[in-house]
Design a protein that fits this description.
The protein is α+β, with helices and mostly antiparallel strands. The protein contains 20 helices and 19 strands.
Length: about 600
Amino acid sequence: MQPDPMPAFDGKAFVRTLTTSPGVYRYFDADGELLYVGKAGNLKKRVGSYFLKPRMEPRIAAMVAQIARAEITITRTEGEALLLESQLIKSLKPRYNILLRDDKSYPYIYLSGGEDYPRLAFHRGAKNMPGRYFGPYPSTFAVRESLNLMQKLFKVRQCEDSYFRNRSRPCLQHQIGRCTAPCVQLITVEDYRNDVRHAEMFLEGRSSAVIDELAGDMDKAARALEFERAAAMRDQVASLRQLQAQHHVQGASADMDVIACRIESGMACVSVLFFRNGISLGTRDFFPRLPLDAEPADVLSQFVAQYYLDRPVPRELILGEPISDQDILADLLTQQSGRTVELKHSVRGERARFLQMAERNAQASLTARLASRQTLGARFDDLQKLLELDESPRRIECFDISHTMGEATVASCVVFGPEGPEKSHYRRFNITGITPGDDYAAMHQALTRRFRKVAEGEGASPDVLLIDGGSGQVAQALGVLKELGVAGIHVVGVAKGPGRRAGEETLVLADSGRNLHPGPASPALHLVAAVRDEAHRFAISGHRKRREKARERSVLEDVPGIGARRRSALLKAFGGLAGVEAAGVEELMRIKGIDRGLAERIYAALHG
């Protein structure tokens, strides 16, 4: 007996049950998939606009036609509703919402604290270590570039503490003039702290004060006939002035972000210019997912809510379009940051010039992305022709194996679609229980673990499965798919050509057993090579991490009598495993809880 079909959703009846309070509403389709999340200052009025209007935009009408169920959550204020809406969109990813695809935290420059010789370093993540954090910066590249400049200007060390504590002579950085070698006390604590203070002032945006101070010190050194020292300061001042001219932007004295949006051919680009302490930190482009015919103002509103409500925010946000939630967002961001945050869209003078710059960046980046997408689409179409598929593939997966003489074997699986790499679907498999160096067994295990879920009805199945290797690796893939009863996947081996030169790869077709040689001009081979190279990169990075972890673990953790607490005390006292290896028995005995017998066992384990 067939179950009764679900009755059609009665939107008008649902609206009659609603309150006029602020809150969040959610729409679901017949399969329970979330279609849309929205917020409202008046739930009855806002939700009613979907079901009581005689005419609606095509985008709204298409969504409303699919609604089978609706839910609401009442909040105290419209601001709380906006915050909840942003959180739900980011976590649930509804189909018809504008979704910012960016889940990375900001990178910072970190200056360690509580040390005679602090260090500067790249930092991303929780700020729970003693010291100062400068930023945020728009990208990893901006941080690396800034650290490189800081090393040239102020010579503050950037090496890891474990490396620093175990130096017996200056490293290469000192020899090329980028470090004053505090590791071997070639600089006094007082002089080093002065360099650190100048670095802090520069990172705070007080470069003019640093220049004035250094110029004064240069004059004093010259009067004291310390001409070599004075010349070094002269060069430092000249470098700072040049850098200041390159990075300082007149009119950007306040911290601010300038945000512009452009939409074309169903794709949006949001470009952000970052300014901190009058210094331009560069730009960053975002490509949010769009629901049909969204407008730039809609995109900017969702961008600000999703990007800044859980991140540090500057004092000013300059927007390319007026947004409907501007006042509410400003109040929420002010509460979050503990200081006044302004959202502006009508600006003059230099701020208008910055906005034009952001708009040009957004248009240029969008044009480049569209061209790239068209190129990628052409490559997918060419692959369809080359492999004689019925239609262009929608999902390509590639597997690769990485190890060092059989140690710490890792298999990678990367996924590409018509939009490019789908990194949220990437997977790594730590291979165990095989003969070290047996690539066939490693591939068999990885493929079994991946496609067992497909056989059980879980997860997406690729249209094309690329295997880095020749007929032997392809045979492993075919064997696994046959064992699991998975059909409909085109398996292709990617074998290196003569001399391992790019563009001369051979494609081994599992279905027919044919070998194809597309040649270096083939767009299809360009796509295959790009996917293969990404799988190779992903496998190598996973292998290196596993190998390093295994090598660090296997020595101390296997010594009888060494538990987590003693191991931590050893590594902390000697600055890492290298320091423990360099220590003698007597030095090891100085650690609390380690007697001579245990110290001798540790020494023996570390020295064979």
